Amino acid sequence: MTDAVLEELPGDRVRVRVAGREFVIDGACPHRKGRLVHGYVNPRTLRIICPLHRSGFDLATGCPVSGPGTDALTVHRAGVLGQDYEPEQIWLPASEQLLEWDDGFHDLMLGDRLRMAAFRAAVSEAVRPGDTVLDLGTGTGILARWALEAGAARVYGIDLNETVLDTAVEELTAAGYGDRFHPLRGLSFDLELPERVDLVISEIMGNLADNENFAAILADARRRFLKPGGTMLPRRVESHLVPVAAERAHAQVAGGVPEDAGGAAGFAALLRRRGARGPFDLYYDAVLPVDGYLAAPRQARAYDLQADEAADPAYRLPLVYPVRRDGVFTGFKGYFTATLSDTVALDISGDDTGGPGRARTTSDSWKHCYLPVAEAVPVRRGDRIVLTFGRDAGPDHSFGQHYSWEGRVVSGTTTVARFAHSTRPYGTGEAGTPGHS
User: Fold this and answer.
1) 3-state secondary structure 75-127
2) Residue 104's pLDDT is what?
3) What DSSP string describes 166-203?
4) What is the DSSP letter of 291?
C-alpha cells in the first residue's frame, strides 16, 4: 500500500493509512485549523501537508517540519496496519521469543487497536499531574509518552533491548519529552531507581497471562520501586482456559507448518532444539473462535498485582469441564482478562478479525494461546474433560517456564481418551513423558 487513504473518525480525528502503516491524528491542523482529511500525504517521508497554508507534519511524531505551523500535531496512534489472518491459523508463540522481538513486532504491537486503546485510556486515567512513573518494558516508549502527556513529571523507562530503548529516546525527544524521560537498560531485577514512583505501568503479560514471567517481575517492581500507596497498572490479571473444537488449527499443528516457522524443515529444527517429542508439546498463538467452545471457560489463575504477596509462579491446577455440545475436542484455548485501572478493562478473548462493516475484536499481537492435544477426540454433550494444568517456573530472573496440560475425556464412568503434553524438554520431568497420565 503506497497511496494514502484518509478517513474521518469520530472525535474530530483522521485515520491515515499509507505504506503499510496506520496513523490516527487530530482532524484539524494546529496552525489555522485546516481540514487534514483533505491534505497531501507523502508515502516516502510519511508526512502530511495541510491544504490550507501548507504546514507539514511528521505522521509518526506530530512534529512540524515545513510551512508556517510551529505547534505539533497530536498523533493518537501510530503503527503498522493490523495483520491479515484467519481464525485458527497457527503461529509460533511470541512470548517464547520476546528477547528476539525486532522493530517489526514492536510495530505490530503499536498497531494492535485493542491493546493500544485500552492501555491509552488506562494510562490517561491513572496518571495524575506531577506523578513519577515507571514504564517497565518500555519498548518504543508509547506508554511512557501517554504518561507524560497526562502530566507525569518524570517517567523511568526500563528495557533490555538497547536498540529499541534508543528508539524510545528518539521518539520522546522529538515529541518534546526528552528531559522528562529517563531510560534504563537491563533486567529490572538488576536495576535500581533513584526514587520510588507513584505508578508502575507495564504490558508484559503473555496471552496466557504468566508466559512472560510478569507476575514475578511486577511483584519485584512493586516491592522495590513503588511508593507506599502507589498504584500498579494493570491491577489484576486473570487467565482462563476452555476446551475447543479447532480442527483446522489441529491439522496445521499435525502438519508441522506454523505460519512463521520457516517451513516444515525449520519447524522440525526448532522442535529438536527445544527437546520436544513433537509438535503437540508446544503451545501456539492463534485466534480461536468462541463458537468452537465445547464447555464454559474456567478461570485458571488470578494475579492481584496490588497485593503485598506474590502468587506462586509454579502451580498445578485441577479443572473439570462438563461438555455442553457435541464436537471434536482438539485442545484448549487460553487467554487473559485484565483490570488495568479504575474503569478500564482488557479482554483478549474476542474472535472477530474484522471485515466490511465489522470492528476487529481480536488482539493482533497477543491472539490466543492454543494448547493442542495429539489425539482429536469426538465428544458428546454430558461428557467431561478433566484437565490438570501446570506451570513450572524457570530459573531466577528468567522469562522462561514450562507448561503441562494433561488429563482425560470421560463419558459416563468410562475414560475414553487420555492426553499428556508438556513444553518441558523430553526426559527432564514427569509431565509429558511416556506413560504419564
Assistant:
1) EEEEEECCCCCCCCCCECCHHHHHHHCCHHHHHHHHCCHHHHHHHHHHHHHHC
2) 55
3) HHHHHHHHHTT-TTTEEEEES-GGG---SS-EEEEE--
4) G
Identify the CA nearest to 95 among candidates 238, 205, 237.
Answer: 205
CA 305-308-309 angle, to 5 degrees, is: 85
Q: Judge contact between 334 and 326, C-beta under 8 A.
A: no
The answer to whether residues 244 and 288 touch, using CB atoms and an 8 Å cutoff, is yes
CA R_g for the chain: 23
Query: What are the beta bridge partners of residue 370?
Result: 284, 333
Q: How confident is the model at residue 365 (pLDDT cuts 50, 70, 90)?
A: confident
Q: Residue range 76-85: average pLDDT?
A: 61
Q: Is residue 78 a contact partner of residue 23, using CB atoms and an 8 Å limit?
A: yes
pLDDT confidence tier of residue 81, bands split at 50, 70 and 90: low
DSSP 38: G
Domain range list for the chain: 5-80, 94-235, 238-422
Average of per-residue pLDDT across 392-401: 73
CATH of 238-422, one of 2.10.109.10, 1.20.120.80, 2.70.160.11, 2.30.30.30: 2.70.160.11
* Whether the Cβ atoms of residue 74 and residue 48 lie closer than 8 Å to each other: no
